[in-house]
Amino acid sequence: MSDRSRLKKPLLYLLIGSVLLSALLGIVLVLRGNWGWLEIRVILTTVIFAVASVCGLACDVSRTPSGLNLFPKAGLALTAITTALLLLGIWVEVDSEAYWKTTTVLISIGVATVHVSLLSIAKLARRFRWVPFIATQIIYGLAILVSMIIVFEINSDLLWRFLAAHSIVVAAVSIVIPILHRISKTDSNRDALLMPVEARNVAAIDQQIAQLEERLAQLRTLREQLVAGTLR
């Protein structure tokens, strides 16, 4: 009864195929003992497809039955763009510093977007609603910091320590939010705390109920017309 996304099945098949192909190629290359640039590119391609599939599935899981779904859509778009840029750069052998810097910056922002989308699956009670907002700022702050280091090629010991501390904070909020979700489940108003998959299932059931009620109304009207016709 769930509202399945058209992307879910292809992404699952792509993930399974990429993993199996990577394993098969790895076994063949190990047995041959021949590692050339072509073989490395093939392995990298399968790994890229596997990671892209995981990111796409994460965005699909976080999709809600209503609303704009900005983060899941942005995550899917960035995943597609960065996958294309990586494959183009590997196979065409793009030798441009600006190209690879742009690709890396988009990857960092894309990872942050997928991360935020995953955390949005957790539904928190009203008293905890401020936590995801702060977590979003922290996660994107880390992505921006990484992007600045890449673009401006900053090499500072103090900055690297700050980056490590920032990463620890990101890991902490990523653990705290699911815990708060479990705590929020003890609240009396649970309908507002449904996870996206549960919300889509409920929405699908509500849609079917509405269709059945409409059909029942039509049948009652038809019955009344038939009864009225026989009494004339």
Structure overview:
By secondary structure, this protein is mostly helical. The protein is extended. It folds into 3 domains: 1-99; 122-193; 195-232. It has 7 helices and no strands. Keywords: Coiled coil, Membrane, Transmembrane, Transmembrane helix. Residues 202-229 form a coiled coil. The chain crosses the membrane at residues 12-31, 43-62, 74-92, 98-118, 130-152, 158-180.
Features:
0% strand; 3 domains; 78% helix; membrane; transmembrane helix; mainly alpha; 232 residues; single chain
Q: What's the topology here?
A:
Blueprint: H1 8-32, H2 37-61, H3 70-91, H4 97-119, H5 130-152, H6 157-184, H7 196-230
Transmembrane segments: 12-31, 43-62, 74-92, 98-118, 130-152, 158-180
Keywords: Coiled coil, Membrane, Transmembrane, Transmembrane helix
Coiled coil: 202-229
